[in-house]
Amino acid sequence: MAQHPQFTNGTSFLNGAAPNGALLSSAVTQAVAPLTAHVQPISADEIALYDRQIRLWGVKAQEKLRTANILLINMRALANEIAKNLVLAGVGSIRIVDSETVVDDDLGSQFFVSDQHLGMNRAEAAAPQIRKLNPRVLLHVDTENIMLKPPEFFSSFNMIIATDMNLRDLSTINASCRLCNRPFYASGSHGFYGFIFADLITHDYVIEREKSNVSTVLKAESATRSIIATSTKKENGKLTEMVTKREIYSPILLANSSPIPAEHLTTRRRKLQIPPLLTCLRALWEFESISGKLPSHSRADLELFTALATEKHKELQLPAETLRSEFLRNFLQNIGSELAPVTAFLGGQLAQDIINVLGQREQPIQNFLLFDGEESKGPVYALHPIFPELDGSLV
Question: Mean per-residue pLDDT for 130-136?
């Protein structure tokens, strides 16, 4: 999977102070550790079964993956892709939650259901095909409305993934995950367009690289990332440095109202490179908050959405000419639809990020990935509240 650039907003933190108020501790990173005690070590049969991926991310990462308990919300096309990728990778268990039933529109984009499932609960309809992919994975089906779950419900999972929901519901689930110190992902697709959002609260991961002659300094690299430890190992005569980094995150409600990182606004040329998808996504969530529904093709809805998009574009300090009427029209025409190539990309990218997070390898998404299928672009922006730089002597 291609790696996308990770952007930051240029401010800094010192001595453990985070822009969103999170404490820089290992408490939340430990939430990604297996919840099941006394787990049997990976067997020879499993090593043989998962041989190719173990070569990519190692036995330790596979052991963490096989003990992980994942919650996946809403079984539409995007969740189908996520479930497929995680199950084939050998995750320990998945609970799929969906209170909706299979309708005609589901048949065109979801490969776990067919005509015979019309009228059935979506999670129950998809479950048999998911189990066939990998019988070793424990699959649990939950047909209750996720919004009726108490916050403590989320504490039994290593990772929570919410798909195709409005901002209000995403924010509620995100808040519950933070109360339980559980990593949270949100993702959604509208035809050619989609996004992935990550709130891992605080996450530590290790980067391995060839040891250089210059010593690595423990320091803040950006507003969200710091180097907290280093160590070395020698293999086959080569000295490898293992650098432990820590990323801090913001909840989706704050990210949705945060500015674009300052380094992208320094010149007009850079501003012109920022896609209007972020503008339209924020306008869509605002529209849903006001109207309680997705925009229709009525004149009133089109006028309201256009006004909201224009307002959001100005708030982001983006040039007016980048919010073209053609893009607005295309985005509105795509709302509510599902395209397999787009959901396949988003599902693959999200599943890979989850595997990296569980294995504490590689830098995770920080924190908003925006995908435009028409342009085949998926930039990542670190959207966080801006706080003044802190004086380390005062912390």
Answer: 92
